[in-house]
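I'd like us to work through together how a protein chain folds, taking it slowly. To get us started, please write out a protein record for me. Label the sequence line and the structure token line clearly, so we can match residues to local backbone shapes. Once you have written the record down, we can walk along the chain together.
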Amino acid sequence: MFKPFRFISSIALLFLSSCSSVYMPNVPNTPMLSSQGEFSGGAHISLRGNANFNGAYAVSNHIGLLAGGEYMNSERHRKDFNTKMVEIGGGYFTTFGPDKNRILEIYAGVGTGKTDRSFRTFDSGNLISSERQMTDFSKTFLQVNYSSKKNKNFHLFGNNYPLNYGTAFRISHVNMDNFFINGIVTPKEDNIYLEPIFFTRMRLSDAVQLQYTTSSNIGLKNRKYMTAGNSIFSVGAVINVGGLKKKK
């Protein structure tokens, strides 16, 4: 017997499983390095519960090393989403401007991660269909950061908090190493993502800053599972120790 609800539910499950991506982009590393010996570390959380960490160290006056990662474990009635990823990289940075308070950074790196997500459809409280997608993936990226330590003050509760602004542009190639749907080997996918990124930092002290990050995510390839659309909206804290000191 044809059951319209189950048919519609199956179509909805197929739509849900293909309209969002198995890849969740991490908060990009924007350390604003300025001189040898400087360390930058940050922790961020997105509105969707994606936790990120970033770290960077300037091994010379122009060369920096990066490390970062993300972890998300969201369990809901109809959808579970679990992902984790780590990445490393390195590149070039330089300061310029009259007060050396503008920073240009160019980094490249690699990463690896995995995603495990499930979709479920219910009828009168009874589970009628489910789909589990599991993939391991690898990633390469190229990123250009531009930021400024030229302060603009934000007045709050009688205090002035200096604001710094920055932007970044990241190109990432993400490729599935394997892909399973309900335990069955499924053709692998890849995609190339363009990510324009904007961030604002509010300085609480010489070392500690609050950071708000937002970005878009654009996929250059038409894919069913490795699609685009997972943008970044996160808040976090960043510390910078060492580096060039602001002139008095």
About this structure: The first strand starts at residue 39 and ends at 46. Helices lie at 4-19. DSSP finds one helix and twelve strands in the chain.
